[in-house]
TrEMBL record:
Organism: Streptomyces davaonensis (strain DSM 101723 / JCM 4913 / KCC S-0913 / 768)
Keyword Transferase: yes
InterPro entries documented for this protein: DegV_domain_contain, DhaL_dom, DhaL_dom_sf, FakA-like_C, FakA-like_M, YloV-like
Residue ranges annotated for the DhaL domain, each copy included: 12-217
Record-linked PANTHER family: DEGV DOMAIN-CONTAINING PROTEIN DR_1986-RELATED, PHOSPHATASE PROTEIN
Protein's GO biological process: glycerol metabolic process
Keyword set, alphabetical order: Kinase, Transferase
GO function terms (MF aspect): glycerone kinase activity
Listed Gene3D superfamilies: 1.25.40.340
Protein name, entry field: Dihydroxyacetone kinase
Pfam family, one: Dak2
Length: 554
């Protein structure tokens, strides 16, 4: 992620905002899910917003990567503002989930319409940001068939109005928008009876406040404290205030649609007659359609008449089950339990696979998205799944994936492993024959009892817990923090290992990357054998895994 603060709204600011918003929504996802009672108390607003922003952030990253590859070292490797905001809007559109995610996609599209209007402009100032926020609020309101006050639409309008009256730089405008949204969110329970009965603020509005807080951090470097943003939650679960049986439509239907504007106008009229919570966002031939209906088939047929619908998702609110995923269900019988693990290199992928796990390969610099993890859970084809993210930065992504899988009726336990060596320890005590809860407890305990470290090469100058490092320095990280800065890989690894074993240990696990120096494993094994009695060492080849060496001490 780029450094903050950013002075202007340029491509780098777009990328930074997307990254910060994704992190913030990851932290707030469960809280937002818990207060989701409108329009349907299905407890997934936070997850849907996270998945929508995840898709937007991935699209922006792809533009940067493509631009860097095309520049070949000639000039600054930065895309234009127009390219970045268009990618952001397109990514959100194709990845939008649920009512809230669809509206957020239109908010981002509205901003992009202003910020990308002049393709030659490298950045936008405070005036451009004010206009973008106003267009975002207006575009989102127009996309909803029957706007309701006390929702995310109200919060977006308040943000735009507050920004209109702000004088100063982008940071000042962003903060004004955030404060306006925050104030509007606080009064949503007084505007919508279902929120007041539940004692909560609007979940979609809460998510938008989180996204705007990330915008403030992008331009000021300061993270607003999101306190006292919701009323007292007087219910145990969102379902406690759900509509009476039969009071609302039974299905949520979402699909992407390739169609002309005129056909979409007719589609809006037809879907409005079939159900409620209708939101149609997009343009330029590509649309995202969201509606709640009793006749899901009719909603899809309407899309077929308008153009080409695809990525069709139909959710039954009562059963909480996704009835269609775009493919037939595998005919084979489900296994009782499986382990799904993210691994950093092909060598470990082979090791995990031999142990019976379904793996997702995390390529260096390309962490898997939640969709990849969900696909792996489906591929495991089990009633119960233990998910090992093996990376601290993947905790929110893995949590969102677990939530999606649970919506499909799969029992998922997420063990917060922060390194592949912790995953190895967890997998070593995995016993499918045990009760699920007992197995998860044993695996969690084994992972927690394993300290982890890695040895890598610094890519740039940076401040660390151990001092300032320069590009090319060897870094030894213990439990995620830099503990050693050196010039020699083997010496740094030995220092790291000694510090870890000073606290005791019974087993050392070494995972060698392709670029680890020859003889390092033998040297470290000899060090353990000579200096630490009754400590065993096991060595694995990790392949191309990013780090030169991974170390685990159980």
């Amino acid at each position: 992620m780029a450094q903050v603060p950013q002075t202007f709204f340029d491509a780098l600011a777009v990328r930074t905002w997307c990254g910060l918003a994704l992190e913030a929504l990851g932290r707030a996802r469960e809280e937002i899910d818990a207060i989701n009672v409108y329009p349907v108390a299905d407890g997934d607003t936070g997850t849907n917003l996270y998945l929508t922003v995840e898709s937007a952030a991935a699209a922006v990253d792809a533009v940067f990567i493509g631009h860097e590859a095309g520049s070949q070292g000639a000039g600054p490797a930065l895309p234009s503002l127009a390219d970045a905001v268009r990618a952001m809007a397109h990514g959100a559109l194709i990845g939008a989930r649920g009512n809230s995610g669809t509206i957020l996609a239109q908010l981002l599209r509205g901003m992009a319409q202003v910020l990308a209007a002049d393709s030659d402009t490298s950045h936008a100032d405070a005036s451009g940001l004010r206009l973008a926020l106003r267009q975002a609020a207006d575009a989102a309101r127009q996309a909803v068939a029957h706007p309701v006050e006390g929702t995310v639409l109200t919060v977006a309008s308040a943000a735009a109005e507050a920004a209109d009256g702000a004088e100063g730089d982008c940071g000042t405008v962003a903060r004004a928008a955030y404060e306006g949204a925050r104030a509007a969110l606080a009064v949503t329970p007084h505007q919508l009876a279902v929120l007041e009965r539940a004692g909560v603020v609007d979940a979609g509005g809460r998510g938008l406040v989180t996204v705007l807080a990330a915008l403030v951090e992008t331009f000021t470097g300061e993270k607003p404290v999101l306190t006292a943003l919701h009323a007292h939650v007087a219910l145990d679960s969102p379902g406690d205030c759900a509509s009476p049986e039969g009071a609302g439509p039974a299905f949520e239907v979402i699909y992407l649609l390739e169609a002309e504007d005129a056909a979409v106008a007719r589609l809006r009229e037809r879907l409005d007659g079939l159900g409620d919570s209708l939101v149609v966002v997009g343009g330029d031939g590509l649309w995202n359609v969201h509606v709640h209906v009793d006749d899901a088939g009719a909603a899809v047929e309407a899309g077929v008449e308008a153009g080409r619908p695809y990525r069709i998702r139909i959710t039954h609110f009562g059963a909480g089950d996704v009835h269609t995923t775009g493919a037939e269900r595998p005919p084979r019988e489900r296994a009782q339990r499986a382990v799904v693990a993210v691994v950093p290199g092909p060598g470990l992928a082979g090791l995990y696979t031999e142990a019976g796990a379904t793996t997702v390969l995390a390529r260096p610099g390309e962490p898997p998205a939640s969709g990849e993890l969900v696909q792996a859970v489906r591929r495991a084809h089990a009633r119960e799944v233990v998910l090992l993210p093996n990376d601290a930065d993947l905790r929110h992504t893995a949590a969102a994936a677990a939530e999606q899988a649970r919506a499909e009726g799969i029992r998922v336990a997420l063990i917060p492993t922060r390194s592949a060596v912790q995953g190895i320890a967890a997998l070593a005590v995995h016993e499918p024959e045990r009760r699920f809860d007992e197995d998860v407890v044993a695996m969690t305990s084994a992972a927690g009892a394993t300290r982890y470290a890695e040895v890598a090469v610094a890519e740039r100058q940076s401040w660390t817990m151990a001092g300032i490092c320069q590009a090319g320095d060897v870094l030894g990280l213990i439990d995620g923090d830099v503990a050693v800065i050196g010039a020699d890989v083997t010496a740094a690894a030995e220092t790291v290992l000694d510090r870890m074993l000073a606290a005791g240990g019974e087993l050392v696990t070494l995972v060698l990357g392709d670029e680890a120096p020859d003889g390092i494993a033998e040297h470290l094994e000899a060090r353990v054998r000579e200096s630490y009695l009754a400590v065993d060492t096991v060595v694995y080849r990790g392949g191309r895994q990013g780090a030169l060496l991974l170390i685990g001490v159980e």
